[in-house]
Design goal:
The complex is a heterodimer of chains A (112) and B (115).
Chain A lengths: L4 E3 L2 E4 L5 E6 L6 E7 L6 E7 L2 E4 L8 E4 L6 E5 L8 E8 L6 E2 L3 E5 L1
Parallel strand pairs in A: 2-11
Antiparallel strand pairs in A: 1-3, 3-8, 4-5, 4-9, 5-6, 7-8, 9-10, 9-11
Chain B lengths: L2 E3 L4 E5 L4 E3 L2 E3 L5 E7 L5 E7 L5 E3 L5 E5 L4 E6 L8 E8 L8 E3 L3 E6 L1
């Protein structure tokens, strides 16, 4: 079956701009996670959804970052007033019944 | 706080040689433990997981890992490495105490395979 998909695969933007990153989870997976991976690092947790609600957003670095999952399926990670330090690969994962997580290919964000 | 340590940043082995990648974790209870592999341009792929039961777990691609509670370790092994195993390997621990299964990750070990 189809895996987790993320769009776009690459996004280049200028400092100060707004970006949206999209994640389509595996059908039927109720849990959805966002992580951020900087070069040479392991993924870093950002936010977790159970259904439509954000159950844990403790990993969001500041209030420029926001994520939604309005219908309990597709999720969008939104970054306002982007900074060069936001450059990273943003990973999305979905999970059935809070067991292992299945990852998408990621979106590489570059802020110039 | 939970943490994961992968002591080896980079390892090089010859094709056909055995492999062991180290992982140590810090967690108050019995954790959920995972090994993922990430190839260039590819997403993270789950190799194997430990939740409970038999402490020696088998995964895909001929990998296995052993959970040792006394050493807080979950080392990944493969008896004979193939050139296609060259990739980045990540160990992760999941919080099984509550509803959130967010993963805490090590920094990864980069594996190079010599022909």
């Amino acid at each position: 079956g189809a895996g987790v998909s993320q769009t776009p695969s690459n996004k280049v933007t200028e400092k100060g701009k707004y970006v949206e990153l999209r994640c389509d989870p595996i059908s039927g997976h109720t849990a959805l996670y966002w992580y951020r991976q900087s070069l040479g690092q392991g993924p870093e947790f950002l936010i977790y959804f159970q259904g439509t609600g954000a159950a844990d957003d403790s990993g969001l670095p500041n209030d420029r970052f926001f994520a939604v999952r309005p219908e309990g399926s597709v999720s969008t990670l939104k970054i306002q007033r982007t900074e060069r330090g936001d450059s990273a690969v943003y990973l999305c994962a979905s999970s059935p019944r809070l067991v292992e997580q299945f990852f998408g290919p990621g979106t590489r964000l570059t802020v110039l | 706080a939970q943490s994961v340590t992968q002591p080896d940043i980079h390892i090089t082995v010859s094709e056909g040689a055995s492999l062991e990648l180290r992982c140590n974790y810090s967690y108050g209870a019995t954790p959920y433990l995972f090994w993922y592999v990430q190839s260039p341009g590819q997403g993270l792929q789950l190799l194997l997981k430990y939740f409970s039961g038999d402490t020696l777990v088998q995964g895909i691609k001929g990998f296995e890992a052993e959970f040792k509670r006394s050493q807080s370790s979950f080392n990944l092994r493969k008896p004979s490495v193939h050139w296609s195993d060259a990739a980045e390997y990540f160990c992760a621990v999941g919080d099984n105490a509550g509803n959130n299964r967010k993963l805490i990750w090590g920094l990864g070990t980069s594996l190079a395979v010599n022909p």
